[in-house]
Design brief:
single chain; 19 helices; mainly alpha; globular
Length: 424
């Protein structure tokens, strides 16, 4: 019976990316089934004690529920916190299946490669036809959504998929034929117009180029070829060039400092000298979160409660009609969101886990230093996790069920103890 359950779990984990593409409903059903079947599997194996190894994570889940109970909107907050443990179970399940070799990683790799190829074709079609092959068309002229319709997350989705695929292609000799798919994935993320996803991948590739012990020439060649492709493409398509480069300088106010507009009377001298965090709107989100944090600095206002405060004029950055632009569901930064919603205690728990993880990385580097291939796989895989921890990059809602599902699924795979032999 346990063997049948393990096959069901393998199937559910393999189809998760496809469920995510379909939308929140199938994604949540998938995670629910993984939780149920994994509990039942551990019961059959008489191994429920395995969960005790992750007690710190369940303690955090309990803290989330307690924080919700102390919030001003208990029921709404509990929707995000009460079943947050399902993500812990998801991570534990994936790492366990990989450790016991129940999860077919080669099949998963092939599914992810297929997703990259299909999205590449679809995004190219959407770029030139203003709708994807299914007829979906979003309302943003600067960005592409592909199969996600009105949800502008195709670049974010693909970038996370790439963080799994790239280490395998670079480090496993039998997967080196898939190097062109790195280019396809990078280019796909670029034309979506999602700047965070795109620059995150660039930061990742330049980082591993510095630290891997072999395959440097291949990674450098990929980066060089890709830069040539996007420079050429940008010259032919000035709109996407503006979105991905110049608009960043405009929104952050860097351009007005480098090239002051003397005829613009609306901008005061002090405003022209201000550099914003990404944009004035992004900075306004952070400042609102800081004011919200000051309400309950120790415990926070409760999970997913930023939205219930940000629209109040007391917490806004603006004093005019632009206030509505910062009236949003989350501050677009995980660290700031956790600090404002979970307080110093919640943030400290997160910080403790990050420190433990960094200790784990450094302690294993010495052990793997003699095996170049395994060392490279360990470095590239864990850099994929570390890229999520960069504090200055904007993020989605930490307590969003759909986006959160993908985040914890990817982390579960990246933290799994697989090696090069897993893909032979």
């Amino acid at each position: 019976m346990a063997k049948k359950i393990s096959k069901i779990l393998n199937f559910l984990v393999l189809i998760f990316p496809l469920c995510f593409i379909s939308g929140p409903a199938l994604t949540n059903i998938n995670i629910f089934l993984i939780n149920i079947f994994f509990f039942y599997f551990l019961y059959l194996e008489k191994n429920l004690s395995l969960l005790l190894k992750y007690k710190i994570f369940f303690l955090i889940c309990a803290y989330l529920v307690g924080s919700s109970l102390l919030s001003n909107n208990i029921l709404f907050s509990l929707k995000s916190s009460l079943f947050f443990f399902r993500y812990v179970i998801l991570i534990v399940c994936i790492t366990y299946l990989v450790e016991k070799k129940f999860l077919n990683l080669s099949k998963l790799f092939n599914i992810l490669i297929l997703i990259i190829a299909v999205f590449f074709i679809d995004l190219i079609y959407e770029f030139y036809n203003n709708k994807n092959i299914l007829g979906f068309s979003n309302n943003d002229p600067e960005r592409l959504s592909s199969f996600f319709d009105q949800e502008l997350i195709s670049g974010s989705f693909l970038s996370k998929i790439m963080l799994i695929v790239i280490p395998i292609i670079i480090c496993c000799d039998n997967k080196s034929k898939f190097y062109p798919f790195i280019l396809l994935g990078l280019f796909s993320v670029f034309i979506t117009g999602e700047r965070t996803a795109f620059y995150t991948l660039l930061i990742y590739l330049f980082s591993i180029l510095l630290f891997i012990k072999s395959e440097k020439k291949k990674v450098f060649s990929i980066l060089t070829l890709f830069m040539l492709i996007i420079i050429t493409f940008s010259l032919l398509n000035p709109n996407i060039s503006y979105r991905m480069t110049k608009k960043i300088l405009v929104q952050s106010n860097v351009q007005s400092i480098l090239v002051p507009n003397k005829t613009d009377k609306k901008n005061s001298e002090s405003t022209q000298k201000r550099i914003y965090y990404i944009s004035i709107d992004h900075e306004a989100h952070l400042l609102a979160a800081y004011k919200i944090f000051q309400l309950k600095p120790l415990l926070g206002v409760g999970p997913n409660q930023y939205r219930n405060y940000a629209c109040d004029k007391k917490y806004t950055y603006f004093d005019d009609d632009r206030q509505n632009r910062v009236c949003t569901t989350h501050p677009h930064n995980h660290y700031i969101q956790i600090l404002s919603e979970l307080g110093i205690i919640g943030f400290s728990l997160l910080f403790f886990i990050i420190l433990k993880y960094l200790v784990y990385i450094f302690s294993n580097l010495k052990k793997l230093s003699k095996n170049v291939k395994e060392y490279n796989l360990f470095i590239t895989r864990n850099f994929s996790v570390l890229i999520f921890l960069i504090p200055f990059l904007p993020n989605g809602n930490f307590f969003g069920s759909w986006g959160g599902s993908l985040l914890f699924y990817i982390i579960g795979l990246l933290l799994s103890n697989y090696n090069i032999k897993s893909f032979k």
